[in-house]
Write a structure and sequence with these properties.
Number of helices: 2
Largest sheet: 6 strands, antiparallel
Strand content: 35-45%
CATH superfamily: Hotdog Thioesterase
Helix content: 10-25%
Mean pLDDT: 97
Number of strands: 6
CATH architecture: Roll
Order of helices and strands: HEEHEEEE
Low-confidence stretches: none
CATH topology: Thiol Ester Dehydrase, Chain A
Distance between the termini: 26 Å
CATH class: Alpha Beta
Strand order of the largest sheet: 1-2-4-5-6-3
Structural class: alpha+beta
Amino acid sequence: MLGVKEIEEIIPHRHPFLLLDCIEELEPGVRAVGYKAVTFHEDFFRGHFPQEPVMPGVLIVEALAQAGAVAILSMPENKGKVAYFGAINNAKFKKKVVPGDKLKLECEIIKQKGPVGVGKATATVDGKVAVAAELTFMIG
């Protein structure tokens, strides 16, 4: 298992934008499974939405991308590089993510050619899909 310090050695994100608490499974270049404990104290809940706090879908997609970045940037040849978004395709938002949820973030790298690749990403809460998307990345 990788904690925040080990994740920070792989990807450049830092608090408050690091959206991974841990990585439970990692196959470099293949897949990563991580978690984000969603608490009421997240900065974004102050404005999204004060009467009914909901984690913004774009931040769930970002958390998925960070899990994918851990998978691809943990390869020795990508050490010290950055993975950038190239595209977000077929994103489906199926369930609200609220304070108290434990968000499971899975990203499997399904294609890669040179510095460009695609990850199949799924975020779940208690086994129910919250977000699913296909994420294209570019390594720079």
